[in-house]
Amino acid sequence: MSGSEPPLAPGAGRAPALYHERQRLELCAVHALNNLLQGARFTRAQLDRLGHSLSPDSLVNPHFSLLGTGNYDINVLMAALLSEGYAAIWWDKRRSVSSLVLSRIYGFILNIPSNMALGFLSLPMKRKHWVTVRQVEGTYYNLDSKLKTPARIGNDEQLR
User: Fold this and answer.
1) What pTM was estimated for this model as a whole?
2) Is 28 a catalytic residue?
């Protein structure tokens, strides 16, 4: 994703103040967007509206869960980012990450396999999960909503 960066709390030699939403229901797309943009910019209702606008005549909307718990697809994320003035660029994982020009990338939203769980019970199934990676004050952080706190990744080379 590329765009201009909003101001963040100054770190002055210590870890920067990071905005980090925790996982709720199947709202990882909401959390990934808000963690990327470092603020509560999107809600479930907003992403639901975007999903409906993408398929206005569908009886069953293909862009999110039938149960109304989230589980938004890439089309909803891309529309949300576009509404904030960002361009999402699809990256094929078969391409080499060495060709990425990190200085021109605002952040990453990754769709990764994740174990399903019911409370503390882990199920033998996997679902896709949206995760944000973002550079703040020269350091990349994993802002996955399933983490209790952001995880420091490091510099450009450590990210690659």
Assistant:
1) 0.81
2) yes
User: Which residue type occupies 129?
Assistant: H
In SS3 terms, 47-70 reads as HHHHHHHHCCCCCCCCCCCCCCCE
Is residue 13 predicted with pLDDT exceeding 60?
A: no
Give the pLDDT confidence of 87-119 residue by residue, as tens digits.
998 888 888 888 889 999 999 999 988 776 666
Identify the structural domains of the chain with CATH numbers, from first to last.
28-159 (3.90.70)
Q: Which of 158, 120, 111, 119 is nearest to 139 (CA)?
A: 158
Q: d(Cα 11, Cα 136) in Å, to the nearest integer?
A: 9
Question: Taking Cα atoms as reference points, which of 134, 73, 76, 74 lies closest to residue 102?
Answer: 134
31 is catalytic: no
Q: Per the residue annotation, which of 20, 28, 31, 63 is the catalytic one?
A: 28
**Catalytically annotated residue among 20, 31, 63, 129:** 129
